[in-house]
Fold:
Amino acid sequence: MPAHPDEKADILQSIFIAHFNIDSGRFDWEQTLERLDEQFKLLGNLVFLEQLLQNEFQKEIPLLENISTAFHTPKDVLEIVMKEV
Structure:
């Protein structure tokens, strides 16, 4: 499990780029998840992200109850990861 906050941010960014339709050149910590990838309008994508994070960090990461993809950004997801891991 990464100890440094920058490592967690790098891992999270790579998850977004590798598993969702987000090009590395378009990734932006401040854009809403839905603006980065319209497929985040589907609940299944948020469920999938939660599963990826739980597998990566070996800890339950409560995204479904804390994130709205229309309003929240990758930075918000990172804040949840930082609190939980």
In short: The helical segments are 5-19, 33-36, 43-57, 74-84.
